[in-house]
User: Which sequence fits this backbone?
């Protein structure tokens, strides 16, 4: 019996806190995306001529977003029936945008006029199975000024 | 930039509800389907197969149990049970009596005709009639294949649990992990059929039902909570004859015109209450 209560508490905490944080995070992401819109991010092909720059530096932004129990349960049930794991879509989306924003903000601090050849890396951090894991998302590119 | 193409617009709770609903519906459908199949197999199983299954269950569950193999009371119990055996039971695997060294009064039957009584039960007995009733009740479960059916159902449950584990769904252990073959319980209906079976045998043997329920009446007078004890046993046990079940049996007996009172048949020396 007490295990069921613990299970429901975990699920409830996961849902309410996780959802609240997610909404706050999205508000924050959207506000910052607007304020950093004037620095363009671009990717160049191998045979294209790179834009002229006085200075170039690698800029890295990375973020680790944790999973919660509610998402873990939803996803493991989803594994049985197949289909879109919608609960993880928001997690990854938040991670990508946050990492990119951090990279952009650090580029702007350095004084970049644009960031070129942006790449993403994603990696899993711990938490196989029952333990809620986390995902690290890193965005990097070359800042020029 | 901010059009949310990467997020499926569905509320997480709606998504969760849909998933729980689908998985549960599928689980129930599989459980019911396999349960029906298992029951059919249990009903059609031949004696040789049943003996094999019974031995496997006995070896896995009672190998570690505290059985008194050399007890002198075994001969008496065995011969009493043999004398209660009905025609239908002659075609089933042989009945083997076991005495469990336990102070809790209890009796049970496992598939393949293994009948267990505890030393606590033997010490509480006052008349042979009480013992006959208890043994006949267990024989009733045996003849109706209740233990086999229960085994089939819990096998289905166990394999469903295993499937869930394999598929990577990690439900908390309380919802699945505490299952075991020993968690069988009979339904009210099965208990009632075994009760009726038992009083029929009582009537056949003694011509009356006197002292049949004495044991249970005495225990309830001593306010022993057999239900809780049965749970400690964690095995299908002779469920307590609650007040209402005793009354039901008495009503049925008077309906058939069977005597409720009669001479008690004594039990041999060395058995029962000192």
Assistant:
């Amino acid at each position: 019996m007490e295990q069921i209560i613990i299970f429901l508490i975990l699920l409830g905490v996961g849902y309410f806190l996780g959802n609240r944080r997610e909404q706050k995070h999205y508000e924050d992401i959207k506000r910052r995306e607007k304020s950093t819109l004037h620095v363009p991010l671009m990717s160049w092909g191998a045979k294209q001529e790179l834009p002229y720059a006085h200075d170039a530096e690698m800029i890295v932004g990375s973020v680790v977003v944790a999973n919660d129990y509610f998402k873990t349960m939803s996803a493991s049930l989803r594994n049985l029936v197949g289909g879109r794991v919608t609960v993880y879509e928001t997690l990854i989306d938040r991670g990508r945008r946050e990492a990119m924003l951090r990279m952009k903000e650090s580029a702007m601090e350095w004084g970049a006029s644009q960031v070129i050849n942006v790449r993403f890396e994603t990696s899993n951090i711990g938490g196989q199975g029952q333990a809620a894991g986390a995902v690290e998302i890193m965005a990097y590119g070359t800042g020029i000024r | 930039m901010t059009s949310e193409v990467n997020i499926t617009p569905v509320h997480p709770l709606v998504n969760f509800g849909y998933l729980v609903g689908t998985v549960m519906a599928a689980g129930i459908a599989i459980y019911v389907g396999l349960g029906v199949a298992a029951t059919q197999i249990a009903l059609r199983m031949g004696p040789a197969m049943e003996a094999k299954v019974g031995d496997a269950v006995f070896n896995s569950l009672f190998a570690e149990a505290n059985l008194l193999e050399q007890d002198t009371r075994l001969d008496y119990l065995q011969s009493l049970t043999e004398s209660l055996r009905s025609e239908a039971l002659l075609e089933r695997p042989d009945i083997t009596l076991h005495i469990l060294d336990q102070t809790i009064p209890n009796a049970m039957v496992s598939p393949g005709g293994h009948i267990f009584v505890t030393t606590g039960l033997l010490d509480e007995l006052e008349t042979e009639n009480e013992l006959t009733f208890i043994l006949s009740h267990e024989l009733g479960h045996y003849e109706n294949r209740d233990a086999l059916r229960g085994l089939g159902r819990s096998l289905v449950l166990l394999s469903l649990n295993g499937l869930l584990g394999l598929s990577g769904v990690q439900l908390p252990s309380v919802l699945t992990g505490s299952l075991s073959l020993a968690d069988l319980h009979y339904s009210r209906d099965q208990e009632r059929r075994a009760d009726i079976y038992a009083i029929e045998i009582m009537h056949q043997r003694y011509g009356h039902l006197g002292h049949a329920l004495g044991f249970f009446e005495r225990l309830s007078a001593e306010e022993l909570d057999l239900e809780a004890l049965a749970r400690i046993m964690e095995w299908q046990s002779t469920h307590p004859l609650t007040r209402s079940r005793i009354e039901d049996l008495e009503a049925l007996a008077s309906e058939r015109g069977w005597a409720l009172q009669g001479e008690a048949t004594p039990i041999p020396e060395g058995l029962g209450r000192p």
Remarks:
- Chain B touches chain A through 24 residues (CB under 8 Å).
- Confidence is low (pLDDT under 50) at residues 223-239 of chain B.
